[in-house]
Amino acid sequence: MGTHVIKMPDIGEGIAEVELSQWHVKVGDLVVEDQVLADVMTDKAMVDIPSPVHGKVIALGGQPGEVMAVGSVLISIEVEGAGNLKESAAPAPVKEAPAAPKVEAAVESKPAVAAAPRPAAVCQSPMVAREADERPLASPAVRKHALDLGIQLRLVRGSGPAGRVLHEDLEAYLAQGRSNASAPAAAAYAQRNDEEQIQVIGMRRKIAQRMQDATQRAAHFSYVEEIDVTAIEELRAHLNEKHGASRGKLTLLPFLVRALVVALRDFPQMNARYDDEAQVITRLGAVHVGVATQSDVGLMVPVVRHAEARSLWDSAAEISRLANAARNGKASRDELSGSTITLTSLGALGGIVSTPVLNLPEVAIVGVNKIVERPMVVKGQVVIRKMMNLSSSFDHRVVDGMDAALFIQDIRGLLEQPATLFVE
């Protein structure tokens, strides 16, 4: 028997160190070739580290949350033969994934090495025993759902990627009447003294760092404008009725992307990046629109490249593709970087007003609030109109307040008179 040492690979882009986000194996586990061993976090995305060999894990090189240098020992695996202990090598090809990856490996037939355990099937018992201090993988929404139901999450078997507990796992747990007798559902007015400590690592750490950096470095100011979207909503409904079956349904987002493209022709200073160390503003002709997207691991911003050259349906298809890729953990680093201006929307939960944080080094971000019907005075008559606010933020070091207001007013005019979106 020998030892195969896997070093932290060079992921590229001049990255010298990465954060170890999560292990998918532990000491003593049998692994197979191409099985995902760990997730590491770069500045832009989560990356899977696969195993290049079959064998048994004998040592782990770090703990989740630890920052490790490229070339440092990541994991040691006992293998048949001499191994590579004297000359360690990085595992070949690394698969990108900005969300928690699937750990199921393609099991090949190899002598004397047992296949790694496969993820639990949904049909198995929804209850599982974990250590009291073991924290299962689950999104914040699932954790709140479990708390509301009075369920101890560590008792629920997860059927998602890497054993992540999903909403349907909670329902399956309840359906079998397995709720923990020692922890009944809390009464509405019962005192509570429980605490939960959550380590800020991986994507959540990167988000926190970027948000803190943005608010400390940029001189934020926000501007809010009310927009009558009745006409554009009527156009959207008409286009969906006429072409939805053949071209796909349109949401409001591709119209907003088109409005950005047209308005930026007169306000190129908004489509820019500011290097505050070199004191250089770079205005770009290409409009690469970042579309803020919520995923289980946090906020991501996939990029619709060259929005200036896309039709409504082309933009809609690309927005949908990128959003699905981000939520499913399949967006690449290139798809998550390079934006020149960002569009952020909470959809139906958009509220009345928001103050979005800039996506540095960009100098403008346009925030979309929810559409509501309100009585408005039009030509002396009170009528019901569909109204929506745009809550946008700018970097006051680069963008003057008057220019920001005129830019948003231009977008307002385009959306209220949607034919102007397509007049060249």
Automatic annotation (TrEMBL):
Its EC number is 2.3.1.-. It is an enzyme of class 2 (transferase). One of its GO terms (molecular function) is lipoic acid binding. Gene3D superfamilies: 2.40.50.100, Chloramphenicol acetyltransferase-like domain, E3-binding domain. Residues 3-78 form the Lipoyl-binding domain. It comes from the Bacteria. Coiled coil: none annotated. The keyword Acyltransferase applies. InterPro entries: 2-oxoacid_DH_actylTfrase, 2-oxoacid_DH_E2_comp, Biotin_lipoyl, CAT-like_dom_sf, E3-bd_dom_sf, PSBD, Single_hybrid_motif. GO terms for cellular component: cytoplasm. Its cofactor is (R)-lipoate. Residues 137-174 form the Peripheral subunit-binding (PSBD) domain. The keyword Transferase applies. It holds the Pfam family Biotin_lipoyl. Keywords: Acyltransferase, Lipoyl, Transferase. Transmembrane segments: none annotated. Belongs to the 2-oxoacid dehydrogenase family. Forms a 24-polypeptide structural core with octahedral symmetry. PANTHER family: DIHYDROLIPOAMIDE ACETYLTRANSFERASE COMPONENT OF PYRUVATE DEHYDROGENASE COMPLEX, LIPOAMIDE ACYLTRANSFERASE COMPONENT OF BRANCHED-CHAIN ALPHA-KETO ACID DEHYDROGENASE COMPLEX, MITOCHONDRIAL. This is Dihydrolipoamide acetyltransferase component of pyruvate dehydrogenase complex. It comes from Pseudomonas moraviensis R28-S.
